[in-house]
């Protein structure tokens, strides 16, 4: 059956006059209604595990803006927690986790099939959303890519250069690779359950892919994505997959073909004309406006929306930012962008 939902049509390779649009982190602190619901939940993690409230914040930006896709409200760091790591968020600073420094920490983690009790509220959020979303809105499930999740598990926090993960890779490759393997396999189980619950598309966020170079990129960014996508598609034939190897640069070329992804998401360091020539030749691309324009707005926001739309107009495209919308964004600027895009 031909796809009727706008986002699924682009993922199936269709070129549309007006591309579908959604925003990374579209449920977030820039929205007053999100801040109110988070306060009701208590804190960010309680919100992630409260299925009714997580579904509510997922729906808020759909009601306000009519985006073509809703992304499940959760976090890539719920998976380490399901595997047994401690996780908490320091206000104003970001995530903290118990650290994996070698074989001992690794052996204390649970197995790939032991995550589902912990993740039950997330699957329930997906089920609520599958029921409640408008018929034209596509539901996206997601997980972090093994490398990106590993960088947080090894450092115990976000790091600008992922040095602790690179160090473990150099000094104890067996433990490092065992962690990537565990994350690859548990990500397959986690995403597969999201699809069973009603996710129509899955997206794999490799936010730190850009710090992997040469052979490391192939082994730890490309290969895990390829395995996850291949296994998901064999369990769920036709499932569209979006890969986001952020700041991969030249490694964006051929990534969709090599991994089997239906779409690659481009970060905003990538020139749109270059990406149209070198990446969109393989199929759908998503992106890639600079998030800061949602803060500054004005004519520059209108011009840049139209420039990116035009650059990708000859092939399948999903309009989005090159990274998440920030807490400082002005909610009115989202309307300005939508007006410039949809006319
Ligand atoms: O709306 C959506 O996009 C869906 C929900 C979503 C969140 N995080 C909610 C969130 C998604 C898809 C993510 C992905 C995620 N989480 C990534 C990959 C994408 C990226 O941004 O590179 C990463 C690296 C994380 C880990 C993470 N979560 C960090 C480093 C932080 C702290 C930084 C920050 O922005 O505060 C979070 C917290 C987080 N995840 C928030 C949200 C809405 C803010 C929490 C709050 O409300 O206080």
TrEMBL record:
Keywords: Cytoplasm, Decarboxylase, Lyase, Porphyrin biosynthesis
Gene3D superfamilies in the cross-refs: 3.20.20.210
Keyword tRNA processing recorded: no
Pathway the protein contributes to: Porphyrin-containing compound metabolism; protoporphyrin-IX biosynthesis; coproporphyrinogen-III from 5-aminolevulinate: step 4/4
Molecular function as annotated in GO: uroporphyrinogen decarboxylase activity
InterPro entries in the record: UROD/MetE-like_sf, Uroporphyrinogen_deCO2ase_HemE, Uroporphyrinogen_deCOase
Residues under site feature: Transition state stabilizer: 75
Positions bound to substrate: 25-29, 75, 152, 207, 323
Uroporphyrinogen decarboxylase (URO-D) domain boundaries: 20-29, 140-156
Job of this protein: Catalyzes the decarboxylation of four acetate groups of uroporphyrinogen-III to yield coproporphyrinogen-III.
Designated name of the protein: Uroporphyrinogen decarboxylase
Source organism of the structure: Rhodovulum steppense
